[in-house]
Design a protein that fits this description.
Elements (H helix, E strand, L loop, with lengths): L10 H21 L1 H18 L1 H10 L8 H12 L10 H12 L3 H4 L2 E2 L5 E2 L3 E7 L5 E7 L3 H22 L6 H14 L3 H14 L6 E2 L12 E5 L6 H4 L4 H20 L3 E3 L7 E3 L5 E3 L5 E3 L2 H15 L3 H12 L4 H14 L1 H4 L3 E2 L2 H19 L17 H14 L2 E2 L1 H11 L4
Parallel strand pairs: 5-9
Antiparallel strand pairs: 1-3, 2-3, 3-4, 4-6, 7-10, 8-9, 11-12
Length: 428
């Protein structure tokens, strides 16, 4: 049975609901575990109804270590986990109308079979099984009707919060720049034609790698709000974590190669590394989904990123620190020292390779951001500088990607994995 709900679209209505979630969650963290179970379930229900950027926050709480205090972690992870693939859905009639409007034909002319019930629903869209007239099974991702207005409302709410952030932070903090980057990335997620283009680009980059598979886009059945790809299947992260250690090592190897080859060779960071986008196969290979949120890495920033990784591979602490300051555009002071030290901590899987990424390590990276905020941001340190354009979403590496790797619980020579694909690309 599906859970059909219309998306609340208005800015004030969405803001009030988010405020209620925050108040309930904060109270539960004070009262303890039993209250956390109830609050977590109510928060998941509300965020799922809102969908959009609100649901994305819930998705992160389901797997990012360090976001929720340890005592309440299990309750919130369990409640929020369903937002990764089973957020509330839009009605069959509304979805049918959206498909027919976007593709310009009746559904029974577009597909010989169409399953009215979605098999997955997330923050931006839901996915239906269908069959083409050539017999191929396909997955048709359709945006929730009303999601464009909902996302715009969430971004307007973020704009309203920007002034408050500016008052609390140092004078050089530019919340408008941060919000502009958020707006660009999240608005792009509503453009399925752009996502299809990026999906094909990632597929081309990893072609020939048997461990990385990306579903083929069916261009003739795709548009601005509808994206059709071959139907694929696989295990969830929770199921993958039950595999033997050899297979889990292959999973970690494949994940690292997918992410950092994309960054350093292709200049494309797939900036939504949550577990629902990975389908794990029995042989250690992985099918990768969802290319809506991609951060380009270009020009000097790409050159510096490559140099930073090469310094880490050489274990050259001095060069690493110098390159990090160039990337972050720091200007000395405590902020520079903390920012460089934090970057170095994020690269421990390379410097300390072979390395076991643990949940405690992943959580410590979230804590490190909090420490910098407490020491620099709110004390208005004069040496604070804004994150350079394009850097904001890179934090999803240590927050999201490392938390996924931590659950696989393996020791791997990440430096060797990285050096191999860099050498193949002629970058070493």
């Amino acid at each position: 049975m599906t859970d059909e709900r219309k998306i609340p679209e208005g800015r004030l209505g969405r803001l009030a609901r988010l405020a209620a979630v925050g108040a309930r969650t904060g109270a539960s963290l004070i009262r303890g575990t039993s209250a956390a179970d109830t609050a977590a379930n109510k928060a998941a229900e509300m965020l799922g109804t809102l969908r959009g950027l609100a649901a994305k926050a819930g998705q992160m709480a389901s797997y990012v270590d360090g976001m929720v205090p340890e005592a309440q972690r299990e309750a919130y992870e369990t409640a929020m986990r369903k937002l990764r693939t089973a957020a509330p859905t839009s009605s069959p009639a509304a979805i049918r109308a959206r498909v027919e409007e976007d593709l310009g034909a009746p559904i029974d002319k577009l597909f010989v079979e169409w399953d009215e019930q979605p098999f997955a629903s997330a923050s931006i869209g839901q996915v239906h099984r269908a069959r083409l007239d050539d017999g191929r099974e396909v997955a048709v991702k359709v945006q929730h009707p009303g999601i464009e207005k909902a996302v715009e409302s969430d971004l307007e709410n973020a704009d309203a919060l920007g002034g408050m952030v500016a008052v609390l932070g140092p004078k050089r903090l530019d919340p408008k720049a941060v919000l502009a980057e958020l707006r660009t990335r999240f608005t792009e997620e509503l453009d399925y034609e752009l996502e299809a283009e990026r999906q094909r680009a990632f597929s081309a980059m990893h072609r020939g790698d048997p461990a990385i598979r990306i579903p083929e886009v069916v261009a003739a059945r795709s548009g601005k709000r509808v994206l059709t790809s071959e139907l694929v299947r696989g295990k969830t992260l929770e199921e993958a974590c039950e595999a033997d250690v050899v297979i889990r090592e292959r999973y970690a190897d494949t994940l690292w190669r997918f992410v950092f080859k994309g960054n350093l060779v292709g200049g494309m960071f797939n900036a939504d590394p949550h577990p629902g986008n990975y389908l794990f196969q029995d042989d250690g290979s992985i099918i990768f989904l969802d290319f809506g949120c991609v951060q380009p890495i270009v020009g000097e920033r790409l050159t510096l990123a490559r140099d930073l990784h090469l310094a880490a591979l050489r274990r050259d602490e001095s060069a690493f620190g110098e390159i990090a300051t160039k990337i972050l555009l720091t200007e000395g002071g405590i902020y520079e020292r903390m920012a460089v030290a934090y970057s170095r901590r994020c690269f421990e899987p390379i410097f300390g390779s072979p390395f076991r990424i643990t949940r405690a390590y992943a959580a410590s990276l979230v804590d490190g951001i909090r420490e910098m905020k407490n020491e620099v941001l709110f004390k208005k340190d004069g040496n604070f500088v804004q994150l350079p354009p394009g850097m904001l979403f890179m934090n999803r590496l240590q927050f999201g990607f490392y938390s996924v790797l931590a659950r696989l619980d393996v020791t791997l020579d990440y430096a060797a994995v990285e050096e191999a694909f860099l050498r193949d690309a002629g970058l070493v």
